[in-house]
Design brief:
The chain has 207 residues and is of the alpha/beta class. It has a single domain (2-6, 13-192), classed as HybD-like (Rossmann fold), CATH 3.40.50. 39% of the residues lie in helices and 19% in strands. It has helices at residues 24-35, 59-68, 89-99, 157-162, 166-206; strands at residues 2-3, 14-18, 44-48, 75-77, 104-113, 120-125, 144-152. Strands 1, 2, 3, 4, 5, 6 and 7 form a 7-stranded mixed beta sheet that branches. Strand 3 (44-48), helix 2 (59-68) and strand 4 form a beta-alpha-beta unit. Helix 1 (24-35) packs across helix 5 (166-206).
Amino acid sequence: MNLKSGLFQSEKNQDRIHYEDERATSFLTNMVLEHLPKLFYKPIVIICIGTDRSTGDCLGPLIGTAIKKELKHFHVYGTLKDPVHAVNLEETLQFIKDKHRNPFIIAIDACLGRFKSVGFMEVAKGSIKPGAGVNKELPEVGDMHITGIVNISGYMEFLVLQNTRLHLVMSMADIISKGIIKAETVYLEKRISVRRNWLESQDSAIN
């Protein structure tokens, strides 16, 4: 769980859409693809941060559980069964560093924000700082991030998280999951196409 401020300020490399918008899934797909590395050899690692012990903070584990079954190339950490949270985040990051060579990391987390921002999902370049919404000091995570604003910030954040509507969290999790799954399909197709074009150019050079 992280804390967002100034959610409607214009910022480069940052976009958001409301979960009730009918374009939400395609928007998420396109934005993920826009931020993914153009160097296709990099491993893509997705860290879904949160815990199933709090309604407002289970966005990440819900997404992790949904996409882990479907993704064929991207690596997923953080599910309902094996969540990534404040206690094991640093350990997980070290494991990823040891297992994956120079990965591109997508961090996914729920966050608190302004009242008028609740229900919006954001895709942006750069890292997030998990735990900021509940006053925990954790390392920054991600080369890019996807966040869902699940409730309002400003007062007794822990109780706010406990009283977040499950419908909102599950709706956002469904949209983000579908967007990531579709993005992986398109990304792999692009990688195959680039590889094919390179091989053809090598054959032409030889002949």
